Amino acid sequence: MKFLSVFRKTLLEMSRDQWMLGLTLAFAPFFVLLYWLITAGGSTTYTILTINNDRGIQLADGTAFNAGREAIASLARVTYSDGQPILKSVPAASRAEAEPILRNRGAAAFILIPENFSQTLRSLQSDDRSATTQIVFGGDVSNPYYMVGINLSLTALDGYIARTTGQKPLMGYVEEPLGASAARTEFETYVPGTLIFAVILLIFLASMTVAREIENGTLRRLQMTPMSSFDLLGGITAALVLIGTAAYALAFIVALMAGFRSQGPLWLAILVGAVTCLSVIGLGMLVAGFTRTVQQAFVVANFPMAMMMIFSGVIYPLPKIALFTVGGYAVGLYDVLPTTHAVAALNKILTLGAGLKDVYFELAALTLLSVLYFVAGVWMFKRIHLQP
Prior knowledge:
- Helices cover 59% and strands 9% of the residues.
- With 388 residues, it is α/β, with parallel strands linked by helices.
- The mean pLDDT is 83.
């Protein structure tokens, strides 16, 4: 009964603090909407600066042949599965004109077609293997878009040269993507990480809610009652899980309204979000166990929050550092972070169409971490704050 009393008390206090409740519920949907606006609901287009120095040639029938122009036009045929172009060709007069644009990251890379390009391709059509030329390319290699843009561009140029000269490649490659991963827009690839990002922020709400009870003196009054630390932290946790899951579900609804398509069951994705809320709040309880003020809780919570942001794959993927294997699953160094399993589970469900049996390991790991963090938080809280 004491557990339920704390649960109702926490919900009542949160409902009275309309600013805090409103920001908690609106934060995740806001960032989902922001990502949709940034990507326009679509995918990235890589700008390639093209410098066409090809002089072209005149064929025997009197027609002009400019292979450089045709090669550059082939870049526009590189598209996503929905037909949206991946590469955008922008002409540049020279490298001197292209380099300032590349330095300011106004384009991913440049490609320079040499003067004898048409003549070389014509010679290759005549089986003259002595003909040769060089296509020059480059850009800011530290630009994350460089490698993707230039690789796709060179693949398109290779395809054009092979078709024009009639030469067959030495080896063929066929891409077979998993699930619907190839059909995802850039916005859709961001949604799982954005949802988990919203859950991560619950660590502040959890630790600061408990710290407020201590700072306001409420804890001292509660010590005069038969209430246990489990009743107090358990009631607060249950209320915050309800609020966190509501915020997560609201963000999911906004994503669906913005065009997001889930390949797997939505109820399973919501379940993963709810269990992740529980595990992150459990970590917040651990933080609250050794802080005494709201300010301390906020400062200390930044450390585990940063760990979850950087090392769980929410922002960018990290190589797995396997420590041992359990039931055929490799347990890695970052698996102590609940968001590591949440990101993996959501990507499986939302992108690859996985079902419950495919995410058993991630759900089990999230549940285990939730219990461990909560028990550790209760023990720390009782040891530090409830000792005579």
